[in-house]
Amino acid sequence: MSRPSGMIAALLMLAFAGVLTCSAGDKALVLPSPAMDTTITAGKAEQTMVVAGGCFWGIQAVFQHVKGVTNATSGYSGGSAKNAEYELVSTGETGHAESVKVTYDPSQITYGQLLRVFFAVAHDPTQLNRQGPDSGSQYRSAIFYNSDEQKRIADTYVVQLDKAGVFPRPIVTQVVPLTAFYPAEAYHQDYAAHHPDDLYVVYNDAPKVTHLRQEFPELYTGK
Fold first, then answer.
1. What's the number of domains the chain is made of?
2. Residue 151 belongs to domain with CATH number
3. Domain extent at residue 14
């Protein structure tokens, strides 16, 4: 997600404005609820989910506004500890994907509801190894499951969405085991919140949060 500066950046961001949001363009997608899901459970310990779908700034920004999410951290998953740093991951040769670890309260939101947000507004799951202007395996769509239950729910939901035909193309999201999550550098954390006027954020990330508020008013929080 390297960005040119000045007028060139402005022209590029305007050129990509039509493809930088989710696959529905100016509208959020209406997706069915997962046929298989966890249940709202009081008194249960916090749970985590790790997903990837393009630049982690936007994914983090979306989940930071979801009710029941207590923390969202940008980072890297899929590679090893020795190459879990931005400059190396950006080569696309480390096996890592820019990812976000979502910590949530299962008494307020389910894993399936979080996946519904992920597919509907956080990214376009039909783009292979890219999102908008960002291309490379580090921008792939992936769900890194940390339990058999998460795997079953994710696999079932992908099949359900494909059969429902809500996307114009097949979903290419990988459902793979989580081996490790490595937090990204401090300057990547909360980037969209700290840099709301950054052109990349304006055209790529802010619309996702807007779509979240429009499509999931019951889950949106302005925190």
1. 1
2. 3.30.1060.10
3. 6-215
What does the H/E/C string look like for the chain? CCCCCHHHHHHHHHHHCCCCCCCCCCCCCCCCCCCCCCCCCCCCCCEEEEEEECCHHHHHHHHCCECCEEEEEEEEECCCHHHCCHHHHCCCCCCCEEEEEEEECCCCCCHHHHHHHHHHHHCCCCCCCEECCEECHHHCEEEEECCHHHHHHHHHHHHHHHHHCCCCCCCCCEEEECCCEEECCHHHCCHHHHCCCCHHHHHHHHHHHHHHHHHCCCCECCC
The answer to whether 138 and 89 have CB atoms below 8 angstroms apart is yes
Whether this prediction's pTM lies above 0.85 is answered by yes
223 assigned to some structural domain:
no
Task: Give how far Cα 44 sits from Cα of 39, 41, 65, 76, Å.
Answer: 11, 6, 22, 27
In a domain, 222, yes or no: no
Instruction: Provide the residue-wise pLDDT of the chain in tens; the chain has 223 residues.
Output: 554 433 334 434 444 443 333 333 345 578 999 999 999 988 889 999 999 999 999 999 999 999 999 999 999 999 999 999 999 999 999 999 999 999 999 999 999 999 999 999 999 999 999 998 899 999 999 999 999 999 999 999 999 999 999 999 999 999 999 999 999 999 999 999 999 999 999 999 999 999 999 999 999 998 7
Q: Which residues are catalytic?
A: 55
